[in-house]
Amino acid sequence: MINASLKQLSQALAAKQISSLELTQLFLDRINRLNPTLNAFVTVDAEKSLNSARAADARIAAGNAGLLTGIPIAQKDIFCAEGWLTTCGSKMLSNFVSPYDATVIRKMETDAGLVSLGKTNMDEFAMGSSNETSFFGPVRNPWDIERVPGGSSGGSAAAVAARLAPAATGTDTGGSIRQPAALCNLTGLKPTYGVVSRYGMIAFASSLDQAGPMAASAEDCALLLNSMAGFDERDSTSLERPLEDYARDLEKPLNGLRVGLPKEFFGDGCDAEVMAAVRAAIGEYEKLGATMVEVSLPNSHLSVPAYYVIAPAEASSNLSRFDGVRYGFRAENYGNLDDMYMKSRAQGFGAEVKRRIMIGAYVLSHGYYDAYYLQAQRIRRLIANDFVEAFKTCDMIIGPTSPSTAFKLGEKAADPVQMYLSDIYTIAVNLAGLPGMSVPCGFAGGLPVGLQLIGNYFAEAQLLNVAHKYQQATDWHQQRPAGLD
Amino acid sequence: MNQWEVVIGIETHAQLASVSKIFSGASTAFGAAPNTQACAVDLALPGVLPVLNKKAVECAIRFGLAIGAEVAKKSVFARKNYFYPDLPKGYQISQMDLPVVVGGEIPVVVGQGDKAYEKVVHLTRAHLEEDAGKSLHEDFHGKSGIDLNRAGTPLLEIVTEPDMRSSDEAVAYAKSLHALVRWIGICDGNMQEGSFRCDANVSVRPKGQVALGTRREIKNLNSFRFLKEAIDFEIQWQINEIEEGRKIQQATVLFDPDKSETRVMRTKEDAHDYRYFPDPDLLPLIVSDEWLARVKAELPELPTQKRARFINELALSAYDATTLTATQEMAAYFESTVTIAGKANAKPCANWVMGDLAGRLGKEGKELTDSPVSAAQLAGLIIRIADNTISNNIAKKVFEALWNGEAASADQIIEQQGLKQITDSGAIESLVDEVLAANPGNVAEFRAGKEKAFNALVGQVMKAAKGKANPQQVNDLLRQKLAS
Q1: Looking at the domain assignment, is residue B64 inside a domain?
Q2: How far is A326 from chain B (nearest CA, A)?
Q3: Complex-level ipTM
Q4: Domain of B406?
Q5: Closest partner residue to A237 among B43, B83, B283, by Cβ?
Q6: Of A182, A157, A193, the residue nearest A467 (C-alpha)
Q7: Is residue A315 a contact partner of residue A356, using CB atoms and an 8 Å limit?
Q8: Does residue B340 sit within a domain?
Q9: Of B259, B291, B323, which residue is a domain's last?
Q10: What pTM was estimated for this model as a whole?
Q11: Boundary (domain end) residue, out of B263, B291, B319
Q12: Chain CA centroid to CA B65, Å
């Protein structure tokens, strides 16, 4: 059961081979045993989870269960969940118990009947690519516990990779689903901006943030996305579109698929072994009937600098609400109001968050706004246009997810720019608002390598199809880290 | 003073009459217990998002249409970033580069009677934004309390060009604007509750100078009287400063109504850098032609249109037309009166509504809507003056009787109290003869050239007639008899 797919779990629950209570307990036991090593979860509340499982069992018994009812899931601690500590990886919210459910939580747990196993560790306010900025300590990569799982959804990635949960939610602002999925041998999907509601998802960079599934396969991701997506009147940037079944095209043959290979993704800067795995995957796609075309994303080298203007700008404003006044951390000893603000924020935020708030405040300030923020917005449009051009000659874009495999804890922690460059292939997708996936495509030095698939707007079903056909032909995604059972 | 020209621009925050907040579903009702009307969005809990209230937008569109402004097809909400405990998000959602209403003008009448003149105040813009909460500094033993009920209340900030040249012009504008927002139903205009508050930007410059002087902004004036007092104080203060050789520093000041003076709140040096940028949580506000047309169709006849109609069709003066269109209630009352009394009686109708009726209502502290005298009753009275059934003096008696509910109509009162005017010239002539015979002294004085004596004789005749004799006939007959 530990390694079962969501479909298998669903069938087992429907056939009463196992109850949701038993299944939930099974995973809670694994969390108990392995989480002290991995630090993937920051909050576990067995009683709450078991109560949800009992409710799910009642739904199954009453015959009004959905496909995912009763299946346990790990929730990234960025989603507000009623009655749960919701910390976003920060000391600032280390005491914050949310009084309300995020739309994603409501849809997955209340509507679909998924059972939350707990809240997963993450980089503080989702700012990081290694999970080392969390107030609750770094997450360990199940493939090598001396290495990072990637970030910011590192807790979710480690939890699923170590089978502490069958699947998890993540969020992706510049690669935070795809990069940890790549580093932990998972399948992760960042949907088109606006497909999944952001209501109740603690904002990092509002125009880039998007939630999505992290799981063992494309099929699992498709089923999870069905439970997450949909228009939400509480989110003005959510898109009013008819509901779709993201699993509908999984089995479509890939004959005639035109795959674009951006020359900028196949140049310098990528680890050779990673590149070899990606090239092997391209060969596999050719066998599946796809044809390769070279495309160009000429402005992609500008995506990291543009991102590190826009994302901090939005973050500096989004994080202003954490002021010690109404909830969250407040410094103990302070003089006047300004002192209270300064001490609470100085003590409540970690170094990376403070760095980005300062960058953001700077680029928005009078006299610098045009040169930085507006210029970055112009670059953003150029980058989006690059993709529009590229999709005129191809249906899908393929390349590496991350330029390297999982790096050692502490290896890049002291060098923010090196850390920022680990998202060099993923960031442009967020800037353009496109859907992107990472799919396991091999190993380099015993560590997982991720293949990135980038689709056109709203091409989630097609992306999942392209990933699924590859997973039927390969078994990379079925590899599990050793020494965890 | 005479060599100085005053320049004033006004920014008004009008609280929009929507039942829920501009970006959340919480109620906007005034006076609830602290923090009972603040939902997750108003409290800025982690993860919450704003959703624009269409009713608030419609209020802004109504305003734009009412002042002949351009309603922007696309406007953008921006974040104004600053820290304050009653600003829960750490930023206010407002509009900066692209406001929803651009331009427009408001005609005003300044002064009263013969000295009244008309002026057009041009608007720069009007934009939508959310209000902040309130900080309460009393009763918390050295701490401050925060009430977020008001946080997120929709506001329309209405900004004029620096068009006004005196405190009287500023007040006339503020009153016209106040009447207009109530007229079109977008703001209740309650100044005490803060639904309508003005900031005045004041500067002075030597007459003839084109460049504007350095301005100081007087914040949060919540009555017309304070607006006038604050501006007058500020003008004199600025002139004194300049005349004594000091320079005006750009500043934001507060008016202290107890001392009738302004004092500095902050200067330009400690002005915030608000780091405005477009709010990524909200899409640009798009106002389609269809939406615009729908709101336009729902607009009532505007005060400016009504005013023009009163001048053109009813031959009223600009002053009368402006006064009668100050509120929708006043205009409706006046129009009902004219409808019954007839267009020919428009001027007396105006006089009665603005004069005796308004005076009596004011004396009793009553609103027009609570008037004991209905428009129909007043019209009945005016008809009887016009057809010479009663004199103006008697009419005042009849009005008083109507006010006191002594009868249902002017006709009944005239009938019951025998107030019908005496127009029978024979009857009047005999009264005149009696008075002349009884007052030889007055007659002699008049003949000696004392005009006052004539008035005394008129008074005697009217007294003898118990006020009911037609005054014109009495005058004519007396003159005739005394001349012979």
Answers
A1: yes
A2: 8
A3: 0.96
A4: 301-413
A5: B283
A6: A182
A7: yes
A8: yes
A9: B291
A10: 0.90
A11: B291
A12: 19
